[in-house]
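SAMPLE LOG
Freezer: B-3
Tube label: C17
Construct: single chain, 191 aa
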Amino acid sequence: MNIAIIDQDESFCNEVEGAVLSNGHYSTYKFHSSQDFLGCEQTFDMILLDIESPDTAEISLSDQLRERNTPIVYLSKEHDHLKKTLSGYLKHLKTDEIGDVPFTNITYIERNHKDLVVHLSDGENTEIKDGKHYLHDLDDRFIKINHTTYISLDFLESVKYNEAIVHGETLHIGHHHVKELHEIVKDTASK
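STRUCTURE (predicted):
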């Protein structure tokens, strides 16, 4: 998730960035003026804007920000209020999906640098460009089985020494992950 932080006060930007990063793995971009932000071509999932900033009062800025169809969270320099508001909002944003695909439909995920190939239970695949950040939001039903592959335990059918059968497909288990996966399967079977 890409988050823009807009405030003239560099120390406040740093504080907001710290609060964001303490709530998960996000990409943050700091701007010290609205003009710097408006000149940036990066797309953002959220804009954090100081409600007390002189730029915020400009009607033209608000109109330009709304044109981007990006959620805007107005912040206050009240430290406790900032941390509570931001923490609650970021936790609310975490979802059980990658892109528009619910976790319950994902059999496994392959990573290729920053891109993902998401394998679905209906046999289809979907590619997500620059989707590596989604891997940090996976819940405990997903486990890494090699350098590039994460499987859903919901679709794990069986495990042989270094192979996992996931929804009818045989996937290689990296030697660093064999023991962990076997222990998970053993724990799951005993429940």
